């Protein structure tokens, strides 16, 4: 029995030694593999660093003669390739020519056009923000581009972040529908209401500064460097000094309510009335300079005005047309007739693109061509439009503030 126990113990020890030897062998193999992979990792890292240096050199190198393998490609095709690479692949250019094309206005224009065509085809969706309890009737963009203001029939003004659409603040004080908003060069916010007042607010803090009184219902506002202009259902335009709120003068020509206002860089104020006439006034003296069109009745009332950087004036009408007027002498240059219902709002982008909104459709008109290259189905009437310096379009759609771009 003793010999049997001794044999069993010996076998057990031998088995343990065998397993230990196998573990040591596996450890040695793993250690060898780790050293090999470490060397390979160092070699690959060095190769990546070398390739990055070569890429930087290639990007910075001038394109001379036949060194650039893309020289045979026309710029138009290169722009299409770049658009695909930059906006789909997320890669950069690989030669100086690519970099030059990336900086060109042609590529920027291509991207701008493509953006609105994507909206028109339903491939891109607008962002929607809700906060008001009744119809939103006016939109304005803050002077620094960081805020967007919306005025509503719920008698409030809401302040939104232009960056992400978050609701920053609600301004209370009006006792009637808020129908018009405008932002002055100093950043002050002006609001016009059915309560017959114009309220002035700090664009930074939202603090109420003063109230301007004297009108009936206020339908339109415009601001230049020194004055704020208010148009009313009482068929008058009142001029107030921005710095103090002092009433300066009253402008009146006809009996029709004033529905829209715009200022240009020629010291002129443009007004649109329910009688269908666009009037141009001296902003500094109040003199009537010219009347564009003849009284045509309420069906042709001027519902929206916007002025381009070169002074060209666009007026939208209830009859669904948009008139384009020369900023020099008021000559009618063209009539845009793509819409089928009343023009509710007009807005101008910094690059000269015109946006127009009617019941259910927003149209995008390219600068110079004045052809509606994109018609975006917005589903309902847009009562107000505003464009930021970055090219985003903010619209008032019912109870929602909507951002395109």
Estimate what percentage of residues fall within beta strands.
Answer: 35-45%
The Cα radius of gyration reads 33 Å
Strand order of the largest sheet: 1-27-26-25-24-23-22
Count of individual helical segments: 4
Strand runs, count = 27
Largest sheet: 7 strands, antiparallel
Question: Based on CA inertia axes, which overall geometry fits?
Answer: elongated
Cα end-to-end separation = 92 Å
Structural class: alpha+beta
Instruction: Please bin the fraction of helical residues.
Output: 10-25%
List keywords for this structure.
seven-stranded antiparallel sheet; 24% helix; elongated; four-stranded antiparallel sheet; 4 helices; 405 residues; alpha+beta
In short:
With 405 residues, the chain is an alpha+beta fold. It contains four helices and 27 strands.
């Amino acid at each position: 029995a003793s010999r049997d126990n001794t044999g069993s113990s010996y076998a057990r020890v031998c088995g343990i030694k065998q397993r230990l030897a196998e573990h040591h062998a596996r450890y040695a193999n793993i250690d060898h593999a780790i050293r090999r992979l470490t060397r390979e990792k160092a070699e690959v890292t060095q190769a990546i660093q070398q390739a990055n240096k070569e890429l930087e050199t290639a990007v910075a190198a001038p394109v001379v003669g036949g060194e650039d393998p893309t020289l045979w490609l026309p710029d138009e095709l290169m722009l299409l390739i770049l658009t695909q690479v930059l906006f789909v692949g997320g890669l950069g250019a690989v030669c100086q020519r690519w970099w030059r094309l990336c900086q060109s206005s042609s590529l920027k224009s291509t991207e701008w056009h493509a953006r609105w065509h994507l909206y028109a085809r339903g491939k891109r969706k607008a962002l929607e923000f809700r906060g008001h309890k009744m119809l939103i009737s006016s939109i304005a963009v803050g002077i620094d581009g960081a805020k967007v203001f919306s005025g509503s029939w719920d008698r409030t003004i809401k302040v939104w972040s232009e960056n992400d659409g978050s609701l920053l603040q609600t301004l209370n004080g009006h006792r009637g529908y808020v129908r018009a908003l405008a932002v002055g060069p100093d950043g002050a916010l002006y609001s016009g209401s059915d309560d017959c007042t114009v309220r002035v607010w700090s664009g930074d803090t939202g603090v109420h500064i003063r109230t301007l009184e004297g009108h009936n219902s206020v339908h339109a506002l415009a601001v230049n460097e020194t004055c704020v202009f208010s148009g009313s259902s009482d068929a008058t335009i009142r001029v107030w000094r921005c710095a103090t709120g002092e009433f300066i003068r009253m402008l009146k020509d006809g009996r029709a309510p004033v529905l829209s206002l715009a200022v240009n860089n020629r010291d002129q104020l443009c007004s649109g009335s329910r009688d269908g006439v666009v009037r141009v006034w001296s902003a500094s003296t109040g003199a009537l300079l010219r009347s564009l069109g003849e009284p045509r009745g309420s069906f042709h009332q001027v519902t929206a005005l916007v002025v381009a950087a070169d002074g060209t004036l666009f007026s939208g009408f209830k009859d669904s047309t948009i008139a384009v007027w020369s900023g020099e002498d008021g000559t009618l240059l063209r009539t845009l007739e793509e819409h089928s219902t009343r023009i509710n709002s007009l807005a101008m982008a910094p690059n000269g693109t015109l946006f127009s909104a009617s019941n259910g459709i927003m149209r995008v008109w390219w600068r110079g061509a004045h052809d509606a290259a994109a018609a975006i189905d917005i589903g309902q009437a847009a009562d107000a439009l505003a464009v930021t310096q970055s090219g985003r379009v903010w619209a008032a759609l019912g109870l929602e503030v909507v951002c395109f771009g």
